[in-house]
Amino acid sequence: MSRTPDQPALTPQLCFNTTALRDFLRVSRGTVDDTISQNLNALVTPATSSPFDPASTSSRTPRPVHRRPIDGTACKQFKDHVLFPSWQARSDVLNYCAGVATSPDPDDPGHLLRETEDLKARERLVDERLDPYSARYFPREARTEALAMLIRNERMVESIIRSRTWSLVGERCDNGGATYEKALDAWRRGESQDR
Q1: Are 100 and 150 contained in the same domain?
Q2: pLDDT > 70: what percent of the chain?
Q3: pLDDT tens-digit profile of 94-110?
């Protein structure tokens, strides 16, 4: 089975270091979700159901081998120990960083620069007859605003990836018709009861 990357320490520095944040999300997705077919194929134990039959080579079988259903126990272990923990680690990081993005940021290095630019923009004389572009002013974005936009985008990506992964898991394992949100919530409740 795949080994998911360890969740980084949840600090505001992680959130504002967009390279480290995106790297964790990318590696986590690449380890589990992007390679879901390979991960599921690894759960199938070859030749457990029936021994090799030499007569089987005389005709073509239309059923693809890689779509064989997987043992329910192996599926459950994969979901409980690899898939859902990976999703939960990414959710924890995204939720924490969303909280950081909505909190005041006293350590913002660009705060003084933005204040200075805003003051200059307010004091500027604008004569649109002489220069129609003189009223143009684009204030710099605070790093919390940039982080909030990044988190929104990553949550949309996460939703798309989880939906695709869950549909592929559903083809090979029994999902009971549950959506990935319901299955993840059920796993969270089960995990919290075990502690």
Answers
A1: yes
A2: 67
A3: 999 999 888 877 676 66
Same domain for 87 and 111, yes or no, is: no
Q: The whole model's pTM is what? A: 0.72
Q: Is residue 137 part of a domain?
A: yes
7 assigned to some structural domain: no
Distance of CA 194 to the CA centre of its chain: 25
What pLDDT does 194 receive?
46
Check whether residue 110 and residue 193 sit in a common domain.
Answer: no
The residue segments making up the domain with residue 182 are 14-30+73-105+142-195
Averaged pLDDT, 39-50: 70
